[in-house]
Design brief:
Shape: globular
CATH topology: Herpes Virus-1
Distance between the termini: 20 Å
Mean pLDDT: 91
CATH architecture: 2-Layer Sandwich
Number of domains: 1
Radius of gyration: 12 Å
Number of helices: 6
Order of helices and strands: HHEEHHHH
Helix content: 40-55%
Largest sheet: 2 strands, antiparallel
Structural class: mainly alpha
CATH class: Alpha Beta
Strand content: 5-15%
Low-confidence stretches: none
Oligomer: single chain
């Protein structure tokens, strides 16, 4: 991993959970989630295609890994790409 990738991931994690923020729950600690939209089953997105998610929204039963991407998007009314766009906007990073 390059220094630029490490710095980006740190900035994403520091934002907290983008979904909690969207739901009006404030800033909550987050871990990095590499978005899967547009990726093959065994492929991971670039380190620059990441969002911060809290444990419940990332790996919990109600999270993207617990529900699966389609059910997650249906439950919360947004796609991984939309959440990625919000993260990029918050960081002031061009798409």
């Amino acid at each position: 991993m390059t220094k630029a990738e490490q710095q980006h991931l740190s900035r994403v994690a520091a934002l907290g959970c983008v979904l909690c923020r969207r739901l009006g729950l404030g800033e909550t600690p987050a871990t990095i989630h590499h978005i899967r939209a547009g990726q093959g089953m065994s492929q991971r997105a670039s380190h620059f295609e990441t969002i911060g998610l809290c444990y419940p929204h990332h790996q919990g039963d109600e999270g993207v890994h617990g529900l699966g991407r389609r059910a997650f998007e249906a439950r919360y009314g947004c796609t991984e790409r939309e959440l990625l766009a919000e993260v990029r906007e918050l960081l002031g990073v061009a798409a």
